[in-house]
Amino acid sequence: xxxxxxxxxxxxxxxxxxxxxxxxxxxxxxxxxxxxxxxxxxxxxxxxxxxxxxxxxxxxxxxxxxxxxxxxxxxxxxxxxxxxxxxxxxxxxxxxxxxxxxxxxxxxxxxxxxxxxxxxxxxxxxxxxxxxxxxxxxxxxxxxxxxxxxxxxxxxxxxxxxxxxxxxxxx
Length: 171
Prior knowledge:
This protein is mostly helical and about 170 residues long. The chain is built from 8 helices and no strands.
């Protein structure tokens, strides 16, 4: 039933456009053309962030940071293999998906690490990507409380995600 919602909305939109005698192709092209200035403002923010993440991972800085943090988080019950996901998820969804895929391939999707990685992917958001995209697109430079609150929410998501994974999937 739910799989028919998007196609039904598209058909409804097309019927409405035909009823209003709107040239659908022209309206689509005009909308795409109107988005180009927005792309011009968003693209530099996104490119900069993606390049910085790539340099961070390629330089070995991520591995070094994980080696520093592992002794701190291991006694708390956090598997050090999850640290790259926890550290990169707020920055890049695609990097987080790649890390999750690697974890599930190495550890197994039905392992505690695999379950926890899946829960963390669903429980958290790409904070910096979202801020760069949405705030950058409308020109907001001062985010006020958005970043601290989003980081606190992400921390809570990580803590509760790990806790629920251990509670619901005991191994």
